[in-house]
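Posting for a labmate who doesn't have an account.
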Amino acid sequence: MNKPAFSIYDQITLLKQRGMIFKNEILAYNQLKNISYYRLKGYWWDAQKDILSHTFNPNTYFEDILARYDFDRKLRQIIFGGVEIIEITLRTKLIYHLSMAYGGLWYLKPALFNNNTQNINGINKTVHVWVLDELQKEFNRSQESFVIDHQNRYQGQSADAWKILEVASMGTISKIYKNLNINLPERGIIAKEMGINSPYVFSGWLESIAYLRNIIAHHSRLWCRTMVKRPSMKPNKHSNAWFSKPLKQGQLDKPFSTISCLLYMCKHISKEENLKQKILELIDAYPNVPIYKYGFFNNWQNEPLWKS
């Protein structure tokens, strides 16, 4: 049975009946006009003492829920800036190293890629072919002037890597890197230039960051998020800028681990990048937001990667 739609006044009344406290109901009303009840629900879910009756723990304030929402929104904005650095740098290195070694149409050459097959909707193709299909779709959808120019002047001709990869998504370029032949020297060169000795570890990090990017791009919450894609190893055997101990599974499952990978690579790529400082300042600005919900653990700020 579908439930009836609730007015904003009814939403506030329902939350009060369940034990939520409002310091300013006018503020709450104005916020709920712009942020849907079910979007905010993700930020108060863990504040319930009974998830069947949806009653709240004592001293659960709407304003505290709003602070969680604001913190999460600002954190996502900061992180997206870091993802942009990784995405653009990876794209640039893929285009440069592989084009210099194998020509502008290297991405079309099966010999440069693994021959693993993948079955999607009953269709069996190599991963390389699946990725090529996605790459071409993204190119065809693009409204960039250089794409339109290519389509008008060179109809039916494949675009060089510096054109087609420039409009590829983070997910697609990370798949291209992951699927490169394991014996290809450029695979290792790119990983090392991004600060990681192992192409295998780097590939896993890219998957985690691409997943993080998708969450942010869809304006979904990181608060209390369990990550489907997660990194698992340190970047280099002798790295002094990582963690003093291996991260535990509960820490790997949360956004903190992927954010840490992002921070590590941004620091390696750009010594002047202030991603860490922005995150630290945000945390200081919201002292009552429990950041352990993101996977930040005790004394995290004293770890080599996160020290001021």
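Reply:
Got it, the structure tokens are right above this. The beta strands are 48-50, 55-56, 117-120, 123-126.
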